């Protein structure tokens, strides 16, 4: 790689390191009220939010956090290190830490050698730290039956019902 060792920088409060919603970009952004996150999680694409929905209902996922850290990778050919912010960290029930980068299906950066080098470098950093790294495309997330089920389940997560209705449902189940 380059001068010095790569390092992973986390936020002091345990939340997302980079807050996405800053008014400088024109793209869909929002906050997802994640049950498995420490706070509502910022997102900057519909497929990121879809992955949060999936993570919330997936019993294999214990906790998740968007924009969890920054990877700083010193390189020999420039003074400034490469910087990388992953989209999502998921801690799984089996102890696996999974780092996920989401991409639009037409993201041209995946064809650029410099960007691919950066992704290969962070993959190696995560491997050396015992973490799993993967890249998921929008269609891979959004078109799966698993996501459709998670979305349907999550859509009812905040539903309110009257005490009388709850009594009827509980009586029917018992």
Question: Would you give an account of this structure?
Answer:
It is a single chain. The protein has 174 residues and is α+β, with helices and mostly antiparallel strands. It is built from five helices and nine strands, in the order βββαβββββαβααα. The strands form three sheets. The protein has a four-stranded mixed β-sheet with strand order 4-7-8-9, with helices on both faces. A three-stranded antiparallel β-sheet has the order 1-5-6, covered by helices on one side. Strands 2-3 form a two-stranded antiparallel sheet. A hairpin with a 4-residue loop joins strand 7 and strand 8. The longest helix has 16 residues. The termini are far apart.
Largest sheet entry? 4 strands, mixed
Order of helices and strands: EEEHEEEEEHEHHH
Instruction: Figure out the total of helices.
Output: 5
Radius of gyration: 19 Å
Strand portion, in percent? 15-25%
Give the helix/strand class. Answer: alpha+beta
Q: What best-fitting shape do the alpha-carbon axes yield?
A: elongated
Strand order in the largest sheet: 4-7-8-9
- Using DSSP, what is the number of strands? 9
- CA-CA gap between termini: 62 Å
Q: Unreliable stretches, pLDDT < 50, 5 or more residues?
A: none
Mean pLDDT: 85
Give the oligomeric state of the chains in this entry, treating copies of one chain as homo and distinct chains as hetero: single chain
């Amino acid at each position: 790689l380059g001068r010095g060792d790569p390092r992973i920088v986390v936020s002091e409060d345990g939340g997302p390191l980079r807050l996405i919603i800053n008014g400088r970009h024109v793209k869909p952004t929002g906050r997802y009220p994640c049950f498995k996150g420490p706070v509502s999680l910022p997102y900057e694409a519909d497929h990121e939010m879809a992955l949060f929905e999936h993570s919330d209902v997936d019993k294999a996922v214990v906790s998740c956090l968007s924009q969890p850290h920054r990877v700083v990778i010193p390189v020999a050919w420039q003074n400034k290190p490469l910087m990388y912010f992953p989209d999502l960290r998921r801690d799984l029930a089996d102890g696996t830490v999974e780092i996920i980068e989401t991409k639009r299906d037409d993201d041209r950066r995946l064809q650029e050698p410099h960007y691919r080098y950066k992704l290969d470098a962070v993959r190696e950093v995560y491997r050396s730290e015992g973490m799993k790294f993967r890249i998921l495309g929008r269609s891979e997330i959004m078109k799966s039956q698993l996501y459709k089920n998670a979305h349907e389940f999550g859509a009812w997560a905040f539903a309110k019902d009257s005490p009388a209705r709850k009594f009827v449902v509980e009586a029917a189940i018992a």
